[in-house]
Amino acid sequence: MISTGRGDWARRIEDDGEGTGWGELGKKLKNMLGRGGKFADLGKSPMTASVLVWSPGDGTKLFRNVDVSDENVENFVKSHLLPDTLHSDHDKVSDDQKSSLLRDSSRADKLEAEIDPWDTPVILICGHGGRDERCGILGPLLQNEVSHAFNASTPLSHARPGLQPVSFSGDPNKLSVGLCSHIGGHRFAGNVLIYFPKYYGSAARSEGHSLQGHGVWYGRVEPRHIEGILHRTVHQGEIIEELLRGTC
Fold it and tell me: Cβ–Cβ contacts within 10 Å for residue 124, how many?
């Protein structure tokens, strides 16, 4: 996920952010990982208009001040974005091609960026009005409902870039909520993604959270669903089947 500090974007995210670090990073990642790119996965693009990367095995990390030179972005892709193992569909490609699609953790030593662990759940809500009016209307409504349902007394100095920090009433854990660009399926608006860090647990759950290290994608979410999502999924680790679009 690339923080832009904005709540809406051009229809095609790669056409936005001209002259900004996030814009350059988004373009270069799409060129490298998208169809026909150097690290394209058998011609299938893993990217939508958003740049979303989730690595539950490594935990979640916040990259600050990333150098967007071609060499550094390639180091970023090789050291953090590519997988450790490939699907059996790759058996038909050459060993050299397989190697190019695998992670090389040694490249992390060459990466120019400040890296911090991310230890709070993240709720991303599609608010991409430049792509579809339904998301542009519902996204901000759902974001506001999340904030209202939580105790928003956390100092803003603790905010993640582009995300609003809020504290769960009666629980010391925090989460971050923000709008994201298109993730697919406008007809399923509101689209809500919830990601839990690998090492996440509630003070009331000594065994940890049942969804730690995983993500949940809900669709057709309305403001009336938010309180239940926060209580059942974020706090209790329960998946709401009637809203579920997918998990990771």
Answer: 25
